[in-house]
Each structure stands twice: as structure tokens, then as C-alpha cells.
Amino acid sequence: MQTKDIVAQFIEHTRAQRFDEAKALLVDEGFEYVGPNMRFLDPDDMLSYQFGMAAIQKDLVLRHLSAEGEHAFAILDFKTYFEPIGDVRLAVWFLVKDDKIQKVETFYNAAVVENMLGGNLPSVE
Fold first, then answer.
1. Calpha distance 88→101 (Å, rounded)
2. What's the predicted TM-score (pTM) here?
């Protein structure tokens, strides 16, 4: 399967809150998620965090997805029910090896997310 297809499936599973299917696209060993204010080395920890965000998720809109080799880059709009904050624009880089996502690095305005969660972001070293 192509890198772009794997990442598109992962995004769709995340959008639809099918976290078991999303997890199946992640490596078991050597996984890493890096965001502006958090880091996860275990896919279950990252997906637990995403599951917690599902309560405020109105939609996850894929605006753009491109891939070259084992790298993919997506622009997403995380639309929320949390009206005081609104929506969060995400830029996400993926590294795919052997048909599994090994690394995810997300770029967004961390202050918006911290305010949305009352400053209680998970810290995983």
C-alpha cells in the first residue's frame, strides 16, 4: 500500500473515531508522536489522548494530503463543539515504514489547545 493511502486511512479512522482501526496502522515498536507540547512513545497513549478529544470533535476535515516516498504531510481542520475556542488548524507530518506509521509530528497553536483543556495536557517522556 502507498504511503498516502495509509495516512489517508489513518486520518479517516481518526475522524470517524475508529481508534482500533487507526491503531492497526501504527507500528508496535519504535512509535513516536511529537506535538508542540506533548510526546508519546506508545501508540495506545496517543490514541487514548485522541479518544479524550473525541468528545469535543465536531469533525476532522482533511484539506490537503501529499506524500513522497515514506513521508506524508497533511493539513487538517479539527472542528470542535467548544465554541469559545473554535477550530484548530493542524499540520501533520508522518513517517511510514513497511506499511505502518512509525512517527507522527503535529504542528498547531498549542496555546489554543491548552486553553481548551484548561492547561491539563498530558506529559509523557
1. 23
2. 0.85
Instruction: Give dist(CA 50, CA 47) in Å, integer.
Output: 5
Phi, psi at residue 66, to the nearest 5°? -135, 155
Give the position of cell 503535529.
Answer: 106
Q: Are 111 and 38 in contact (CB under 8 A)?
A: no
Cell of 43: 501508540
H or E segment to which residue 111 belongs = helix 110-116
Q: Please give the helix or strand (H or E) that residue 49 lies within, else none.
A: helix 43-53
Cell, residue 75 = 493539513
**β-sheet bridge partners, residue 27:** none
The Cα 114–Cα 17 span in angstroms is 22
The CA-based angle 116-73-17, given to 5 degrees, is 50
Contact 11/104 with Cβ under 8 angstroms?
no
Strands 32-34, 100-107: pairing is parallel
Question: Does residue 32 sit in helix, strand or coil?
Answer: strand
pLDDT tens column, 5-51: 999 999 999 999 999 999 999 999 999 999 888 899 999 999 888 88
